[in-house]
Design a protein that fits this description.
disordered C terminus; Serine-threonine/tyrosine-protein kinase catalytic domain-containing protein
Length: about 90
C-alpha cells in the first residue's frame, strides 16, 4: 500500500542498485525488526493508519483484504482521495 500511494517502489531504491548485497541485507534485517518507511505527513490520518496497520510486525494483526477494501471505500466516500492528499510529500 505504501508503494501504491507514494508511487515509490522500495525495491528500486538507489542504494540497492550498487550491487552491494550487504546494503540489501541490512535493509531487510531492519524491516524484520520493525523498521518501516516514514509515512508522508500530508496523508490523511485514516490512510496513514491503514498503511501502518498493514505493516504490523505481527502478521496476525494485519487487516485482511475485506477490511482493507472497506476502509478504502470509507475513505473514498469521505472524499479523502479527491484532493490529492495521498500523493507524495
Amino acid at each position: 500500500m505504501y508503494e501504491l500511494f507514494t508511487g515509490r517502489l522500495l525495491a528500486f531504491r538507489g542504494e540497492f542498485m550498487t550491487g552491494d548485497e550487504s546494503v540489501v541485507e541490512e535493509y531487510v534485517q531492519a524491516r524484520a525488526k520493525g523498521a518501516r518507511e516514514k509515512l508522508p505527513s500530508r496523508w490523511p490520518a485514516p490512510l496513514a493508519s491503514l498503511v501502518a496497520d498493514c505493516w504490523a510486525q505481527d502478521p496476525q494483526a494485519r487487516p485482511g483484504f475485506a477490511v482493507i477494501q472497506q476502509r478504502l471505500r470509507d475513505m473514498a466516500a469521505a472524499g479523502l482521495f479527491r484532493d490529492g492528499s495521498s500523493s507524495k510529500d
